Sequence to fold (214 residues):
Amino acid sequence: MITPTPSLPPFNRTHRTQDLILGGVRSLLATGGMEAVSMRAVAERSGLTAGAIYKHFKDKQALIDTVVEMAFHNFELSLFKAIASLPVGSFERLAALGESYIRFAEEHQEEFKILFMPLVTARKRFRDLPGQGGYPILRRCVVEAIEAGTLRNEDPDLVSLFLWTRVHGIVMLLLACDLDGAISLGGSGEELISPAMLFRETRNLLIEGLKPNG
Fold:
């Protein structure tokens, strides 16, 4: 006698369907922006019918909001994990944030694009970035480092923006432009220049520049 294969419980089946739907939305947003997202396009990308999608999400905006919220949650979680075990107020904590930022951009390019690249023709306003792009986490670490005497006493917002634009600039430059073989970093002899490598090689320059005077 052949034992019939049990069907998936409703919760698991629903979860799997939602993963397919949201994966399709994420891909469309990352490659074509908001204009690329429609119920029909999502259905084609996920291999489902538009009717099946409406059973889980009421409209296009609900789909987009869910994907953006999930992307920020994953991004923020990666930042918190990176600094959790490191001493408060240390350079290591700040460096770990930068490394985590770069790693997320490399390993989750679709989500990174959704968080930081314009999904419409107009530029995003800072306050509209989900969670301000992790800025509050960075600023808190900067304030802690200033209070600990690790960084010199400067405007924490100025320092935070300086650090943020440096790391984000590295990511955007090397995701958009192939520098392999064009420059040599520190005589390493490595031809492959990755965002993580560029961050690592320039880290000491940054640390020396932000140390307290004297």
User: Anything to note?
Assistant: The chain has nine helices and no strands. The first helix runs from residue 10 to 32. The two ends are 83 Å apart (CA to CA).
